[in-house]
Amino acid sequence: MSWGTELWDQYENLSFHTQKGIDFLEKYGQFIRDRCQIEMEYAGKLRRLVKNHQPKKKEEEEYQYSPCRAFKLVMNEVNDLAGQHEVIAENLQTHIIREVGILVKDFKEERKKHLQDGARMMTNLTNQVATLERARKNYEKAFKEAERALDNYQRADADLNLSRLDVEKQRTNMTIKSQQCEDTKNEYANQLQKTNDLQAQHYQNLMPDVFQHLQELDEKRIKNIKNFMTQSVDIERSVFPIINQCLDGILRAADQINEKEDTQMVIERYKSGFLPPGDYQFEDLSAVKSGEAQPMIINNAITSIRPEAMTVKGTMSAGKLKKRVGLFGIFSSNKNNLSPYGENKEDYSDLPPNQRKKKLQQRLEEISAKIQQETAARDGLMKMKGVYEQNPALGDPMSIEGQLNESGHKLDKLRQEQHKFQMYLEEAQDNGASIMNVSPSVPGRRLKSQPSRLINGGGQRHHRHSGGSGGEEESLSRSASDSSVSNPTTNNKQSAPGTPLPLHNSSHSPESGLGTSHTSLPDSDEPEPTDIDGNAQPEYYDADQLPALGICRALYPFEATSEGSIPMYDGEELHIIELDQGDGWTRVRRQGDTEEGFVPTSYIECTIFNNS
């Protein structure tokens, strides 16, 4: 099958067909280009997806659980999948799109050349046919003139009235015309032969060659499209092994999820180390009348019930609660305030025993790793110094001395820090052993400032009362601060006058807004509060003031330097109108005065009224 023989007269159609073929090749190249763009966009979106779901710094602690760790591995594999789609796009761009562009350019130039050759050949044939037609017309004209001259000669020869001279003129004209007719006939015959030869060559040799070249060009185009399609499949298949590895990695990540392990991790993370609360003691109301009852003192492990669960009928009104929020709420944006145990202190004494020991052990491991690293660096410097001493040409040994001194200082500092945290850990272990023998009312929170005479007595009292007609229970909650953990003796040692610092700039200062009171207060029909000797306490507040919950005595003088706090002198007694809500501050009011404000909880010794 050849276009030259089968399509000898389809020059225009073949020209149109080859042009459409090249246009289709360009269209296929555009398809591959668009696909590359889609692959790149898909890869980019996958990478953006992985980036958007990477754990934030504040979420890193949550990613210790097996589903979270598996999810991080899955994101890594998805990121690798994105890389494979980028590889597909790059290979298609390099091996197909580029080749398609080159071929389209070559095909257009080659087609143009062949079509120009064919057009030139067809022009030559057309010109030859036109020459033949002119020769034929000249011959036809000369033939007619020769016939007319012959007819005139014959009539003149037959006419006896004409002279011999006239007859001779007609004979001469006839001869000339006959010769002209013969010449044009020969020319016509010659042009006819040339035209036939050229036409035969045109349709048998010249144009078939042109059509054959066009056929080869079109077949080459078709073959290349086939190869491009096959090559695109090979390019995509080449990344299948890596994609399968990524999918296998996702399966392996899923297999690492262990619900039992996560359950144990939750226990280790949140276990406080406290024992469940003991039984409530029976409160004999008759003993109150006889004066035998003791004032209710909150023990050193009080409830950690949510503040919103502490407001019952007959307690502080919502207006009073909102007042404190409105006063200090502008500082409440500190995200650290959301920590269940407040901000961690250096010795983690604000954490439950188990959590504190865990944090201290982690800190010791970090310090040990730093000591090992610094020791290795110091050993390297010592070796370098020894080499310099043996061969001074390599360097000055004294240039290492400064680095060695700096390394020694770092090691000393790290060892001191390690010793300090070891002491903290021993203290936590001793405290944990003693706490295991105590049955607090409700685990989770500790009170720091308690009268020493009550704590030394070792008694633990629990505070309950019936509030209003509903008989609901009231819980007073307080969060620990770092100055005293177990008793005021320790408090006095750690908090000598001038030593403890109020949390003026802390996120738990009164300005932070964390101290919003949710403390339950008794109904109006509750018994009058009593002091430590069981005597009735007068109401020190009017209808617009908060009721006094107890009395506190200043252990140290306090200078009020922040908004919302009030100063106090050593030994001054103040009324407690709002308990510490875990921010290290207690709200008080001066006796016989309306001045209210906040003072550091670690600076005062509290006695809570017995309202039962």
From TrEMBL:
Stretches assigned to the SH3 domain: 547-609
GO annotations of cellular component type: cytoplasm; plasma membrane
Keywords: Cell membrane, Coiled coil, Cytoplasm, Endocytosis, Membrane, SH3 domain
Origin: domain of life: Eukaryota
Residue ranges of coiled coil: 122-201
InterPro entries reported in the protein's UniProt record: AH/BAR_dom_sf (IPR027267), F_BAR_dom (IPR031160), FCH_dom (IPR001060), HR1_rho-bd (IPR011072), HR1_TOCA (IPR057870), SH3-like_dom_sf (IPR036028), SH3_domain (IPR001452)
Region listing for Disordered, in residue ranges: 434-538
SUPFAM superfamilies (alphabetical): BAR/IMD domain-like, SH3-domain
PANTHER family found in the cross-reference section: CDC42-INTERACTING PROTEIN 4, ISOFORM B, FCH AND DOUBLE SH3 DOMAINS PROTEIN
Family according to the record: Belongs to the FNBP1 family.
Identification of the protein by name: Formin-binding protein 1-like isoform X1
Highest classification ranks of the organism: Eukaryota, Metazoa, Ecdysozoa, Arthropoda, Hexapoda
